[in-house]
Amino acid sequence: MSELITLSKNSPEFESYLMGTFAKDKRALPLQTLNVNSASETVTFRVVPVDSISRPSSLIVFLRTFKARSFLLILVPLFLILTKNIVDQTILDPITTGIATLGVLLAFAAVNLRNDYMDHLKGVDRVLEKSGSRAIQNGWVTAAQVKSSSTILLALAILCALPIVFAFPVVAVVIALGLAVGLWAQFKKQNSFKYQIGGEFALFLMLGPLLTVGYQLSMGARFDQESFWLGCVWGWLVLFIVHLRNFISILPSVQAGFTNTVNWLGFDKSRRLLAAWWGLFVGFNLIYHLLFAGVYWGVYLSIVLFFLSVTFVYKLKNLSSPIGSELRGVFRSGFQLFLLTIGLWVFECLWYLLH
């Protein structure tokens, strides 16, 4: 048997219902949130027994909770840097390389969970139906469980960082910068960093140059311009996906009062932003390859990406409304570009390894 209950932010039970700690045998599933992230916020919950919640297999719950597909954002740059240093024969310590790989994956998992927890509390995932893993909103796990798991994984990531810093003290500088950006991004009091104008820059730094440079240094290799610019190009590509996801949620985000770069620009200007952002990525990728990876691959990849971009830009240009199937079509086209770019980049790295 289920029941409905509406609580205001001033209610003493409000936080316990959001956290899922109000009862051990029940879950409070948020149905409607009004005046989100304000002093007058109210949430209507459906309170149901834990045993009555329909949930997939434990494996699916695990993969969805940790947003397994998002690990592509971290595995690809790690692979690019790893293959670069294998080819250059600059890996001095395979043990610290392995520890660093594990530490980065643990840290990314911790940030993923922390992000879902914060967005649930702040209302982002309760208002935007496509946002987050949906594990908390579906009642598969509680916000309290997600928070504690994030803390444990972060502690393990820090333990992995200790022997690397001991072996290569210069890595501590990169870790300190990453922690500074991460703390700012995840613990802002007013709103999620994703819903601040220009807040996406934190993702650019953490998944871009800080990641690639730090990972290379943890191998015992020296800092070089290639690892930095590789991180910048990858970070730029990551922000393309971030802007694309924000674009398809522009209407509900505006209605809920969330602000990000895409919402601030509006529908028409955001279409131009996406087209220009992708065009600049193709240009930056060409420059990177001409400087560090060779003329052949730079020209080849640029020609392929240019022709693959035609459909995406055409769909963007002809998009007339921020709702409907055409918007989803734009997202699919843009995401396919992202995946094809990754595939070509990975193929390039494998070619280097085999030759």
Rg, nearest Å: 22 Å
Unreliable stretches, pLDDT < 50, 5 or more residues?
A: none
The separation of the N and C termini measures 64 Å
How many H/I helices? 15
- Shape type: globular
**Percent range of helical residues:** 55-70%
Mean pLDDT, to the nearest integer, reads: 86
Order of SSEs:
EHEEHHHHHHHHHHHHHH
What is the strand content?
5-15%
**How many strand segments?**
3
Classify the secondary structure makeup into a structural class. Answer: mainly alpha
> Tell me about the biggest sheet?
3 strands, antiparallel
Major sheet strand order: 1-3-2
Briefly summarize what is shown.
This protein is mainly alpha-helical and 355 residues long. 67% of the residues lie in helices and 6% in strands.
What can you see in these coordinates?
There is one protein chain. The chain has about 350 residues and is mainly alpha-helical. About 65% of the residues lie in helices and about 5% in strands. The protein has helices spanning about 15-20, 60-65, 70-90, 95-120, 125, 145-165, 170-185, 200-205, 210-220, 225-250, 250-255, 260-265, 265-295, 295-315, 325-355, and strands spanning about 5-10, 25-35, 40-50. β2 (about 25-35) and β3 (about 40-50) form a beta hairpin. α3 (about 70-90) runs parallel beside α15 (about 325-355), α4 (about 95-120) packs antiparallel against α9 and α13 (about 265-295) runs antiparallel to α14. The termini are far apart. The mean pLDDT is about 85.
